[in-house]
Amino acid sequence: DLQICQHRAPTCCTKKMEESYQAAVRRERTQSIQALNFELKYMIVGHITAFQEAFESLLRFAENRTSSLFETAYRPMAKEAAEPVKELFTDISLYILGAETTVESAVVRFFDSLFPLVYSRLINPGITDLSEDYTECLRLTRQDINPFGRYSKNMVTELSKSLWASRMLSQALSLGIEVINTTEHAALTKECSKALVKMQYCPHCQGLTLIRPCVGYCLNVMRGCLASVSELDAQWREYISTLEYLTNEMAASHDLEIALTGIRNSINEAILHAQLNGPQLSATVDKVCGQPKQQEGNLSSDNIVPMKEATEIQTFVMAHASLNNKRREFINYMKRSRPFYASIAERLCDGDLVMRDSSTCWNGEDVV
């Protein structure tokens, strides 16, 4: 009653053993593909972690530089500006990691929160009662009044260009892991299971436990079994090309590192622009939001302080070099994995599975 290992000679197999062999080849094939995938997956996962650590390091560096701007140049509003600055960099981090948000919404939210502080602490430092309603009115009119000139829009443009490639790369790396995980658990057809049993275990039914399959026979069986997986070859090669394009984009003129560290300058220019246009802004705000309460003997608003340049260039250079090295190392490895899915059958038939150094091997029917 054997279905797979039928042979003219006497056999030591039963139908139940054939079923056990089918379960064994399914398990072994999954383990073999997992072993092949391991190095590739390990490299991608490792680089996802490395990129994220580098991103976080650069974001923290840029956030610290931006916070130091308020502490050194705009001390009257430094404490209250801490939260909007933190929110801005959290939003940027979430965007890079693929959250449903935009760079523009993050920057708009930041400048909407910043304007009431600039208006009440720098332009009109005598304001004593900044009610919630008045603060909200300043927030809502910020985009119409445009107190920060072109600088807020410039910041959106610069960040969007550089963060887009980082976001896409982050998503592409996650997609790579998804593809590899899916191929690991690709189901074997009944025909494939039978062919694998015939190749690997039918010799055992004749007592030939040391005979292994012939190389050509193994390749034919494996190619048939893994036809659906090897069809990924063209898409995988295209995927590697896309990764290469994205890493080149990240290293191009609109560099992530430069854009992030440039946030401090953009904010400083924006605040200086608002201060220089203080009288006109006050007149417009008075018409739209009314006049807030003032202290007796209004404090001088002439407190424009030039930005102090932070002496943290060495830290930045190291973070920049680290990210560039990781990009190069990663893309060079991924280029070598281009033929991964095209050669999967050859790699599975390599090693201990087939007989290479002997004159006899199993061809599916007999020892040859």
Uncertain segments are: 295-311
Which strand order spans the largest sheet, edge to edge or round the barrel? 1-2
Distance between the termini: 26 Å
Class derived from helix and strand content: mainly alpha
Total number of distinct structural domains = 1
DSSP strand tally: 2
Order of helices and strands: HHHEHHHHHHHHHHEHH
Largest sheet data: 2 strands, antiparallel
Rounded average pLDDT = 85
Helix content: over 70%
The outline comes out as rod-shaped
- Tell me the β content: under 5%
Question: What is the number of helical segments per DSSP (H or I, 4+ residues)?
Answer: 15
Radius of gyration: 33 Å
Produce the secondary structure layout.
Elements: H1 15-73, H2 75-96, H3 103-123, E1 127-129, H4 132-145, H5 151-184, H6 190-200, H7 202-205, H8 215-225, H9 227-230, H10 233-251, H11 256-261, H12 263-276, H13 278-289, E2 293-294, H14 313-336, H15 344-348
Antiparallel strand pairs: 1-2
Main location: membrane
Membrane topology: Lipid-anchor; GPI-anchor
Protein name: GPC5 protein
Q: Key features?
A:
368 residues; mainly alpha; 2 strands; membrane; GPI-anchor; signal
Q: If you had to describe this structure to a student in words, what would you say it looks like?
A:
The structure is a single chain. This protein is an all-alpha fold and 368 residues long. It has one domain. 71% of the residues lie in helices and 1% in strands. The chain is built from 15 helices and two strands. A two-stranded antiparallel ribbon has the order 1-2. Helix 3 crosses helix 4, helix 5 packs antiparallel against helix 10 (233-251) and helix 5 packs antiparallel against helix 12 (263-276). The longest helix is centred in the first third of the chain and has 59 residues, at 15-73.
